[in-house]
Amino acid sequence: MTEVRDHLLSILVRDEPRVLTRITALFGRRGYNIKSLSVGSTEHPGVSRMTIVVSGDRGVVEQAIRQLEKLHDVIKIIDHSLEKYVDRELVLVKVAITPESRVEVRQIAEDFRSRIVDVGRHALTFEVTGDEGKITAFIEQMRPFGILETMRTGRIALTRGSNADIPTHVYHEGETQALQPTLEVQPREERARHVPNLF
Amino acid sequence: MADNGKQHPPHRGDMTGAKALWATLANHGISTVFGYPGGAIMPVYDALTFYPEVRHVLTRHEQGAAHAAEGWAKATGEIGVCMATSGPGATNLVTGLADAMLDSVPLLAITGNVASHLMGTDAFQEADITGITLPITKHNYVVRDVEDLPRIVAEAIRIARSGRPGPVLVDIPKDIQLAAFHGEIPAPHARPEAPAPSPESIERALELLRGAKKPVIMAGGGSLDASAEITSLARAWDIPVITTLMGLGAFPSSDPLWLGMPGMHGSVAANRAISEADVLLGIGLRFDDRVTGRVNGFAPNAAIIHVELDAAEIGKIIRTHVPVRGDARQAAQLLVEGAQPTPRPEWKAQIEEWKSRTVTPETYGAGYAVKAVVDRLRPDDILSSDVGQHQMLAAQLARFEKPRRWINSGGLGTMGFGLPAAIGAGMAEPGVRSVVIAGDGGFQMTAQELATLKMYDVRNVKICIINNSFLGMVRQWQELFHEKRYSEVWLGDSNPDFIKLADAYDVPGYRATTAEELPAAIDAWLSDPKSALLEVVVPHEHGVFPMVPAGAALYEMIETEPVRSPDLSAQMQDAAEEASEA
Question: Which residues from chain A sit within 8 angstroms of residue B303, using beta carbons?
Fold first, then answer.
């Protein structure tokens, strides 16, 4: 078994009713754990894009992708772990402040290139975008001051480079092409074991 | 599908959504629809009267309609169509849809729904049927604009038939059925070409087969339409063939290379060959747990070649060494072309020895009765079964020379499947005998479909009930794994007189209670010019063997029925009677 880790999937889907349910129900029924999910429209009318972070070993993720590819609403799936990508997440963080801590909190926020989006008498709300590491670091820096609320959008990602992700003809007639698995012929663990003669 | 190229005139008077639906179905060559009307689909049933070219078969329960459509589809390989109203009508289709999903049956289900403005308000007879059937359909639709209706129905038919087939549901609100339709009725989509297997994968498969000393072919339900190619493949390479429950008929049973069915109630030869094979070529199958037994004990010495259209099935259960993704026919054809038969006398001798261990039921019981019936079948006869011991016995004992003559509920194991499926198959092929073997339990789940037989004067459906007064398969498991605590499996006291029940529907009934009575009863039953029912009363305690206990590996199979203590039958009856009195 390969290691369990987070996989970042981009799923391009037809923008039709119940698509979100179809996708999440598939994950739910087959026991795949969604760690983060974000959905938005794309530059193509009628096409939405989901970024799903699913954790599991390679086998689980490959199975999830192949099951997803069978759905009629799914146009394309990109497994970002197979290529270079950029990913971001936007977080709103509301930090408690006192007259003494105000300057220090603002200084940390500035270091993270965070913007203040709301100013209250006892709290500041920051907007931070970045990859997971940056956001986690920001939250850890702010934690001692007292985090009142946070809201994360979930991760979003795009492949690096200039490839176009969406086929020109979205409502094509054919089936989506599933991945061709590439397992090497090799003895299985059980292979060496002799079959007991129980017949 | 009978694509006769005949285009339906786009308009027939005032075209409504309901008429557009029938026109689309007619354009697709749909000749028969199984269904049951109700409030929310009345406009469709009203429009039906304008389309005499489509026959509607009124079943007595929507589940019967769904299974009949499945029987139609399994016998012909073409799409089956069923129809129901909203709410309870639609939910009654659910079992049939789940059954079709697991057995990859092309099925189109049309449901009515409450008017669009009422949807989501918990209106009378409203159910969110697209939500309910989401995990058990290949795809489903709610029609929200009447102009989309024919396009959606055409697309639903295409999805149901293409790739790995499956059920598709189209839900049509009542106002859409009534709305005026102005568009064109679409012609059928061309059936998409199945993807061809990659030359590299075929080359790797050939390499493995060339080096194999103990090869075996395993053919599943996805190989039924590749029967001719698989037969050539096996003969060209001289490799023995195992056919799964769903694949029975993909390879002729009379061929000496046939080893029978694998899995929980598989043959000694099949399970033993899998356990010892060094190369296993699986074609059109999904390695169901009833086939594999304990997964890490399945084909422990074999390199696995898996020919499969559905990429998600490759490597899902069994680790595959050479995946061949694509059409079974093309793959088998390509493997025939590269054939290099090598003599494997030791493997052949070993196989022959295993084959000699076939269990033939010799004493009167369920197995004996099933064998007596299936031995009397002709190669063209369609044999359906319900679910339970009789199903496994029929699968073990029946011999199929060609595909699509064996119809049963494999994946879902749906009790009540048999009779309606046999009716659907019988209607699809009226010139062919459609024989169904059922148990006394499962038969009663859809026994009301006897009325469908009567109403349409179907003459070729032959019903055989193996009556052991028990839910036999559950009883067998209780016997083996629950220390014979026969909890809620005794039916004997409350079973109807099946002959009288049949008579109430004008179906002639025959009965046999001993081995001596059986041959004459079978002859009379089969030669009756009408559809007829045969009840075979058998001893209670008969089991199905060989058997691989759940969770065990195939090589841990129990070959023959354990020897019982002489008073076991009495004990079982006492226990059951006590339970029913309590």
Answer: 185
- Quick check: ipTM above 0.90? no
Predicted confidence at residue B542, as pLDDT, reads: 84
Phi (first) and psi of residue B271, to 5 degrees: -65, -35
User: Tokens at residue B456, please?
Assistant: 């349409």
Instruction: Give the Cα separation of B328 and B196 in Å (integer).
Output: 9
Residues of B annotated as catalytic (active site), given as ranges? 62, 124-125, 174, 473
How confident is the model at residue A168, as a pLDDT? 41
In this predicted structure, what is the pLDDT of residue B580? 59
Q: In what order do the strands lie in the sheet with B509-512?
A: B406-407, B382-385, B434-439, B461-467, B532-537, B509-512
Q: For the residues of A3-53, what is the DSSP string, one character each?
A: PPEEEEEEEEEE--TTHHHHHHHHHHHTTPEEEEEEEEE-SSTTEEEEEEE
**pLDDT higher than threshold 70 for residue B564:** no
Q: Mutation test of the interface with chain B: which of A1, A2, A69, A72, choosing the one with the most B Cβ atoms within 10 A?
A: A72
Distances (CA, A) of B111 to B18, B42, B69, B89, B121: 12, 11, 14, 8, 18
Q: How many residues does chain B have?
A: 582
Query: Quick one: tokens of B479?
Result: 């016997």
Picking from B388, B396, B391, the residue whose alpha carbon sits closest to that of residue B407 is: B391
Contact criterion met (CB < 8 Å) for A198 and B321: no
**Predicted pLDDT at B37:** 98
Report CB contact under 8 Å: A195, B268: no
Q: Which residue has the higher pLDDT, B549 or B572?
A: B549
- Beta-carbon count within 10 A of B423 CB: 32
Q: Give residue A174's pLDDT band: very low, low, confident or very high (50, 70, 90).
A: very low
Task: Round to whole Å and give the CA distance between B72 and B422.
Answer: 8
B232-249 pLDDT, tens digit each: 999 999 999 999 999 999
Nearest CA-CA distance, residue B532 and chain A, Å: 42
Q: Span B452-478, mean pLDDT?
A: 97
Spell out the SS3 assignment of B485-516: CCCCCECCCCCCCHHHHHHHCCCCEEEECCCC
Beta-carbon separation of A177 and B195 below 8 A: yes
In angstroms, what separates the C-alpha of B249 from chain A's closest C-alpha? 27
Residue of B nearest to A63 (CA): B312
Compute the count of residue pairs across chains A and B with CB atoms less than 8 Å apart: 89
Measured between CB atoms, which of A73, A178, A190 is closest to B312? A178
Type and span of the H or E element at B218 = strand B215-219
Q: Output the DSSP codes for B303-343.
A: EEEEEES-GGGTTTSS--SEEEES-HHHHHHHHHHT-----
Distant-in-sequence, close-in-space partners of B141: CB < 8 Å, separation ≥ 6:
B130, B152, B156, B168, B169, B170, B171
pLDDT at B228 over 90: yes
Interface contact flag, B321 A62, Cβ < 8 Å: no
Query: What's the gap in Å between the CA of B134 and the closest CA on chain A?
Result: 7
pLDDT digits (tens, 9 = 90+) for B526-536: 999 999 999 99
Q: What is the pLDDT of residue B189?
A: 87
Name which of A89, A186, A190, A80 is nearest A139 in CA terms: A89
Amino acid A84: pLDDT: 86
Q: How far apart are CA A98 and CA A121, in angstroms?
A: 9
Instruction: Calculate how close chain B gets to A22, using CA atoms only, in Å.
Output: 7
Residues in chain A with CB shorter than 8 Å from the CB of B311 are 66, 69, 178-181
